[in-house]
């Protein structure tokens, strides 16, 4: 790849390994594919326990675990300007050309995009979740998102529903928002070599046991399904504050022998849990995309899911049964799925998923967004301030003040430690192979 086309990307988010989740997987696999396509990719996140400093992962992926500790739900405490010195140093040391922030709930993402725009870098933002409009938390989050997205060059959403949600929450022009779905590592999620007997139907649930993931809905659905279908057994993987309710449900209905509670399941063991079942049950109340559905389908499971958010966009109709997020409709959907099981071929479903979803396809589409962002016109602070001013009568003025202070602090840092005094890190070019899918996750470092 020529130097003119080689992107030098800094991925920023509070959510990265060793924490596991959809955002973490997305950043990791996207970074691996971009590295294989010849780009330079660096990840910046906060410290996890004693994991601080610079670490290297599979494929030469370099990760800066900056010495900030998580404050709430793996997020760092908002500092506004506290991350500017260390981000500036990383951007100059690594000779970065573009900053890519992930997840609206990430404090580090918002601050990095703000600082990067102050320093004249092109920025891209990916939103991975859906948020409401009425509750106090969503109102505050949407205002923060409006501030951040007022000056991004391009944005990415993982589904069309997510795009509509992001545009409505942030006021961002729809022309600046691209839809690029998630994908699944089909090399890691393979079906069982032999088809399972249908004498006993196993329904698998792997999810964080929280309200948003529909844990309360499971409490209503599982006992009734067990009553209607004596040959059904449930396997529930995951942990969270709602686990107590599920444990109480098992004891109340005396179905301990038909509902196995596995607790938290490491990502490397998810596939072994999935292939022990016939049906995957997703009870989320809100979902932008849901990678768990892709992983289950890649393992050959028929999916039953709530019809929420971007879920209807994920799989073809013959691979998923959708239901409204109410107990009766979910119970009927499980019954329909059980009648469909004889027509399901796990190996064929796996091959279809392999053709439908590829991380290399995601990476190549993301490349186009980067190209588009780098072609955007350079603007000074005075040209950018009107966009912040339009964010609200009072909020707009506050946002402008924050950006002016940030601009002055950046110039002060340039005086105290000029950029030419920061030594650039020499690039180490790792062997990469075009069109080669990343191997299964190897967490090194």
Automatic annotation (TrEMBL):
A single Gene Ontology CC term: glycosylphosphatidylinositol-N-acetylglucosaminyltransferase (GPI-GnT) complex
Pathway: Glycolipid biosynthesis; glycosylphosphatidylinositol-anchor biosynthesis
Molecular function as annotated in GO: phosphatidylinositol N-acetylglucosaminyltransferase activity
PANTHER family associated with the record: N-ACETYLGLUCOSAMINYL-PHOSPHATIDYLINOSITOL BIOSYNTHETIC PROTEIN, PHOSPHATIDYLINOSITOL N-ACETYLGLUCOSAMINYLTRANSFERASE SUBUNIT A
Domain Glycosyl transferase family intervals: 193-323
Coiled coil (residue ranges): none
EC top class named in words: transferase
EC number of the protein: 2.4.1.198
Protein's name according to its UniProt entry: phosphatidylinositol N-acetylglucosaminyltransferase
InterPro entries the UniProt entry points to: Glyco_trans_1, PIG-A/GPI3, PIGA_GPI_anchor_biosynthesis
Domain PIGA GPI anchor biosynthesis: 46-135
GO biological process, one term: GPI anchor biosynthetic process
Cytoplasm keyword on record: no
Swiss-Prot/TrEMBL keywords: Glycosyltransferase, GPI-anchor biosynthesis, Transferase
């Amino acid at each position: 790849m020529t130097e003119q086309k080689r992107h030098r990307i800094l991925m920023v988010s509070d959510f990265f390994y060793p924490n596991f989740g959809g955002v973490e997987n997305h950043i990791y696999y996207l970074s691996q594919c971009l590295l294989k396509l010849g780009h330079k990719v660096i990840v910046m996140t906060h410290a996890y326990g004693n994991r601080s400093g610079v670490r290297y992962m599979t494929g030469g992926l370099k990760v800066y675990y900056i010495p900030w500790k998580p404050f709430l739900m793996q997020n760092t405490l908002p500092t506004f300007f506290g991350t500017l010195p260390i981000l500036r140093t990383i951007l100059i040391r690594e000779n970065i050309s573009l900053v890519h922030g992930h997840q609206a709930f990430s404090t580090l993402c918002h601050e990095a995009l703000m600082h990067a725009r102050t320093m004249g870098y092109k920025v891209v933002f990916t939103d991975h979740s859906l948020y409401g409009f009425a509750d106090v938390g969503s109102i505050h989050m949407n205002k923060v998102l409006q501030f951040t997205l007022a000056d991004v060059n391009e944005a990415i959403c993982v589904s069309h529903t997510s795009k509509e949600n992001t545009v409505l929450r942030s006021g961002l022009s729809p022309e600046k928002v691209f839809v690029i779905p998630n994908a699944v590592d089909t090399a890691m999620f393979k079906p069982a070599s032999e088809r399972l007997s249908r004498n006993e139907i196993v329904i698998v649930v792997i999810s964080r046991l929280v309200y948003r993931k529909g844990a309360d809905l499971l409490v209503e659905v599982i006992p009734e399904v067990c009553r209607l279908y004596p040959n059904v057994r449930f396997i529930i993987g995951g942990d969270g504050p709602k686990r107590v309710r599920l444990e109480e449900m098992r004891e109340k209905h005396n179905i301990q022998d038909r509902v196995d509670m596995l607790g938290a399941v490491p990502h490397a063991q998810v596939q072994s849990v999935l292939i022990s079942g016939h049906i995957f049950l997703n009870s989320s109340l809100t979902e932008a995309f849901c990678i768990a559905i892709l992983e289950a389908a890649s393992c050959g499971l028929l999916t039953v899911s709530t019809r929420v958010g971007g879920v209807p966009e994920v799989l073809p109709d013959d691979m998923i049964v959708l239901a409204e997020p109410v107990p009766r409709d979910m119970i009927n959907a499980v019954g329909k799925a059980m009648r469909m099981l004889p027509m399901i071929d796990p190996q064929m479903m796996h091959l279809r998923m392999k053709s439908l979803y590829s991380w290399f396809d995601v990476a190549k589409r993301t490349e186009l967004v980067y190209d588009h962002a780098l072609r955007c016109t350079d603007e000074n602070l005075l040209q950018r301030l009107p966009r912040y001013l339009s964010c609200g009568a009072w909020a707009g003025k506050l946002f402008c003040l924050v950006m002016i202070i940030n601009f002055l602090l950046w110039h002060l840092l340039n005086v105290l430690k000029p950029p030419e005094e920061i030594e650039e890190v020499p690039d180490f070019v790792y062997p990469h192979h075009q069109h080669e899918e990343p191997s299964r996750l190897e967490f090194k470092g």
